[in-house]
Amino acid sequence: MTAVTTNGASARVRRWRTPWLFLTPFLLLFVAMYLAPIAFAFIQSLFTLQRDGLGLTAPTLAFDPFANYARVFTDDEFIASLGRVLLFGVVQVPVMLGLALFIALLIDSKSARGRGFFRLGSFLPFAVPGVVAAVMWSFLYSPVTSPINGFLESAFGFTIPFFSDALALWSVANVVTWCWTGYNMLIIYSALQTIPAETLEAAKIDGASSWRTAWSIKIPMVRPALILTTVFSIIGSAQLFNEPTVLKPISGGAITSTYTPLMAAQAQVAAQNYPYAAAESVVLAVLVGVTSFVFFKITGRGDR
Fold it and tell me: Strand, helix or coil at 47?
């Protein structure tokens, strides 16, 4: 009896230990590359940078856990950058995911031809690094070299002010949409491939048209993929940095150094005010986390 009990306990230990052996490499990287930087940023945000009036001595750090956060919520430029990114996400994310869903449904259609070509063509913009894509679009947006405005001016006598106060944000959104629609399309298309053929065949037998099948069967069944891509897109919108930074030099001042929250934090890093940059980053991370959690809770109600 004792031997059997010992062997059973050993087997349970081995079963418990094996998953952790596989998880350990991930956990080490997760802690080192994710949790540790977040903890360090939070600790940094609890200090303030103090300089003397003449600037003759090196700045010193003083522990003041609320000063940076009080300043963040009264910083007009940072609040404006949050509002700008919020507007960006509310408009750009649905447009991008709507396009991705539409393209995925077209490629998944039984009557579609050249599926491989269109999948590759839709995904190719994502293969272009974001910075390179922004540089390319800066050429298309440039008041001097833009072939788009060159054609419009010669054909219709007007040009598009891509970097006016009203259009600058949407010029950036266009670049992001161009880059990421194909990526989201592939996720949705992969989900479409998991729909049982019997379900689609039953809809066909019942006389459902292609659009009726897409609306009543395909879209509801890829709902988890839509939720996933939406959360990814929310996080990506909050991290908006590369595209506006690259377009900033040709924007004529429409895109400032504090145009997005990450750009505002980077501006503070450039000014060597690391604690305040850390506080801005922590506030942004908390807001994104809360938004993602609320979105999951709202969309998860339909699964109960």
Answer: strand
